[in-house]
Guanylate kinase (Plectonema cf. radiosum LEGE 06105), 203 residues
Amino acid sequence: MMQVLSTNSGATTKLLSSGKLIVLTGPSGVGKGTLMRLLLSRHPELNYSISATTRPPRPGEVDGKDYYFISRTKFQRLIEEDEFLEWAEFATNLYGTPRKPVIELLESGNSVLLEIELEGARQIRAKFPEVLSIFILPPNFNELEKRIRGRKKDSEAAISHRLKRAKEEIDSAYEFDIQIVNDDLETAVHEIEMAMFSQSELF
Ligand code: 5GP
């Protein structure tokens, strides 16, 4: 079992016998969601942290399953109450990881998977130095643009925000423990599994 550090209201707490924390980051449209679902279906020991967001639900998204869809007022109150392990603004919306469930799972020796953007991943790395951080890259930028546009679930303004942010995120991929190119889904999942196996006795 490994040890991780977590900071709570500025104070540093050592969690003994903690589960493994894994952060998956990558630009919008890179296929993180699909990779996540495949990983979770193959590894029932992994727990997915459901984020809160001020973004409106897309067609088919379910509150409490895909995200907790909340108002900006509520999100800001939760920030003030220190209820987020990390949070960030992305393409004009706020996203955050609820603190309590993640800490409880880690403390009880369970593993947690976070699928979050760059700023949040940086906050997590600062609080949990032993996190396994994985960055998912597209085969090339044209392919990514095609995927973001092909999704047809976002407005043109949201699409251009996401494309600009995607470039910034890709430039920071080197900060992560591992970079994986999502060209072929099976290969990418296999590479993530190899990284998990090599870093922890839990998998
Ligand atoms: P989407 O709106 O496409 O669902 O997500 C936009 C971005 O927000 C994605 O890069 C996703 O990984 C990220 N995201 C989702 N939940 C969180 C979270 O709790 N915290 C942070 N920092 N980013 C998140």
